[in-house]
Write a structure and sequence with these properties.
Blueprint: H1 3-22, H2 26-38, E1 41-52, E2 58-64, E3 67-72, E4 77-81, E5 87-92, E6 116-120, E7 123-129, E8 139-144, E9 150-155, H3 157-167, E10 177-182, E11 186-191, E12 199-205, H4 206-213, E13 223-228, E14 238-245, E15 248-257, E16 266-276, E17 290-291, E18 294-296, E19 309-316, E20 322-330, E21 336-346
Parallel strand pairs: 13-17
Antiparallel strand pairs: 1-21, 2-3, 3-4, 4-5, 6-7, 7-8, 8-9, 10-11, 11-12, 12-13, 14-15, 15-16, 16-18, 19-20, 20-21
Length: about 350
């Protein structure tokens, strides 16, 4: 080997040596990440509740300025609520012909399970993706709130096919994206656990994700993280909603006795939890999912809230570790609920 070639390889060798000395083993990093999250102690107390019999199957909620935007999984609208949670209007996403009975039939609904706000240039946008749990559910809707609430339909079939390959899913109904959140750095999608599968966080670079949805870039690279959530009544809980705030990903999850992503089942309870995004391990495996802290909702009288929490908005409270949480719920009978929680995080 010539001297020039030798010198060319020296920096790489030194870099590898430095990495070996400075980076703890993968197992140690995983243990540290899990320990940091396990130190959190959570409590969640219901403060108020409100019912919406004519707002069907609420599944996602977002907040912009003083307006809440709520989407239902079998409705063709985004519903607008004011700061006191009164319904003030709605935005039509697509043709409402199948909504004649007040709910879109399960076989044809796009199953809109989540909603997130982001900015694109000077425009404020809402992105509302389908769950991906069947061919009819591969659509997404983009709402430009700045430009007269202009709505564009997107075909996510190629994107969801890519995610199914990443997650090694083969059959329709196995992909079931229930949570969605965006911040300036990352975009997050939550895959709800079914059967023996794990709950999964899919993370994308936000700028890459925006370029993709506007047709200016290819499929965004994805990082995959597996999580184990607390059980409710002996049943596994699955992700149902997400909200990013302060380097944390807050989530709702519920336990439902159902064999797949299409059929409804008996609701056994709901939880709220938090993933410390700074504590994410470098890699996780389905065989060893990371444990995350979560807690069931408690009513003021000390009983357990038994509703089906679908999504959430989180606002920082007046004191450190205190948060105000607004949750939407689905009664699986054509109506919706909204509740506020006081969430406390203690180390």
């Amino acid at each position: 080997m010539t001297l020039s070639k030798t010198l060319r390889y020296v920096p790489l060798a030194l870099l590898a040596l430095f990495a070996c000395k400075s980076e703890p083993p993968v197992a140690s990093r995983l243990a540290t990440a899990e320990a940091r999250m396990q130190q959190l102690q959570l409590s969640a107390t219901v403060q108020q509740q409100k019912s919406y019999p004519r707002l069907p199957s609420a599944s996602g909620i977002e907040l912009l300025d003083s307006t809440y935007y709520v989407v239902g999984d079998d409705a063709p609208y985004v519903y607008l609520l004011d700061g006191q949670f009164n319904q003030t209007g709605k935005i039509a996403l697509f043709d409402t012909a199948d909504f004649a009975t007040g709910r879109i039939p399960k076989a044809v609904k796009p199953d809109l399970e989540s909603i997130a706000h982001f900015t694109y240039g000077r425009a404020h946008m809402l992105l509302i993706p389908g769950s991906g749990s069947g061919p009819k559910r591969n659509r997404a809707f983009l709402v430009n709130l700045t430009d007269k609430k202009y709505v564009e339909e997107l075909d996510f079939t190629r994107f969801y096919t890519f995610l199914k390959r990443v997650l090694r899913l083969e059959a329709d109904g196995e992909l079931n994206l229930e949570g969605f959140a965006m911040d300036n750095t990352y975009t997050y999608m939550l895959q709800r656990a079914l059967g023996t599968s794990t709950n999964v966080l899919l993370r994308f670079d936000t700028q890459d994700f925006k370029r993709f949805i506007f047709g200016k870039g290819d499929l965004p690279a994805v990082a995959v993280y597996h999580f184990a959530l607390p059980a409710v009544g002996g049943y596994k809980t699955g992700f149902s909603g997400a909200f990013a705030l302060e380097d944390k990903l807050f989530f709702t999850a519920s336990a439902e006795d159902t064999p797949n992503a299409v059929a409804d089942g008996e609701v056994l309870g709901s939880i709220v939890g938090v993933i410390d995004l700074n504590a994410l391990p470098y890699a996780t495996r389905a065989a060893s999912p990371l444990q995350v802290p979560a807690v069931q909702f408690m009513n003021p009288d000390g009983t357990v809230y038994k509703g089906k929490a679908e999504s959430l908005v989180v606002k920082a409270g007046a004191a450190e570790g205190m948060y105000e949480v607004v949750v939407v719920s689905d009664d699986d009978a054509g109506g919706s609920g909204l509740l506020t929680l006081q969430l406390e995080l203690k180390l």
